[in-house]
Amino acid sequence: MASSSGPAGTADPAAAEVDAYRPKIEAIASAQHSGSVIKEIGPPDNLALVLGLTAAWASASPALQSLAPEAPWSPERLRRHRAAMTAAVQAFAAP
C-alpha cells in the first residue's frame, strides 16, 4: 500500500480509520481477482467512487435538488437516488 501521509497540510489518517477501510479494500481486491468486479479501477479508487456516489445527493446543490420530481428529502426521492446509485455502481464495476 502507499504511504499513509496525506496531502500537504493534512494529518496522517488514524490507524483505526485505516483499519476500518482495509477489509473493504481487501473485499474489492478479492472480487476483482474472482472476475466479478472490473480490474481497471484499483480498490481504493473503486471504494472512493462508491462512497462519493453514496453522498452525491446529500452534497448536491439546492438548485439541482429542486429539479427532482419529488421533495429533496422525501422517502421516494431517497429511494430513487439509492436505485440510481446502485445502477451506477453496477455499471462501472461490472467486468
Topology at a glance:
Layout (H helix, E strand, L loop, with lengths): L14 H20 L8 H17 L2 H5 L8 H19 L2
Q: What would you note in describing this structure?
A:
InterPro entries: Sco4008_C. It comes from Streptomyces rectiviolaceus. It holds the Pfam family TetR_C_21. This protein has four helices and no strands. It has helices at about 15-35, 45-60, 60-65, 75-95. It is globular and about 40 Å long.
Runs in which pLDDT lies below 50 for 5 or more consecutive residues are: none
Rough shape?
Answer: globular
Strand content: under 5%
**Element order, helices and strands?**
HHHH
Structural class computed from helices and strand pairing: mainly alpha
Over all CA atoms, what is the radius of gyration? 16 Å
Tally the beta strands: 0
Terminal CA distance reads 24 Å
- Helical run tally: 4
Largest sheet: none
**Please, what is the average pLDDT?**
90
As for the number of domains, it is: 1
In helices, the fraction of residues equals 55-70%
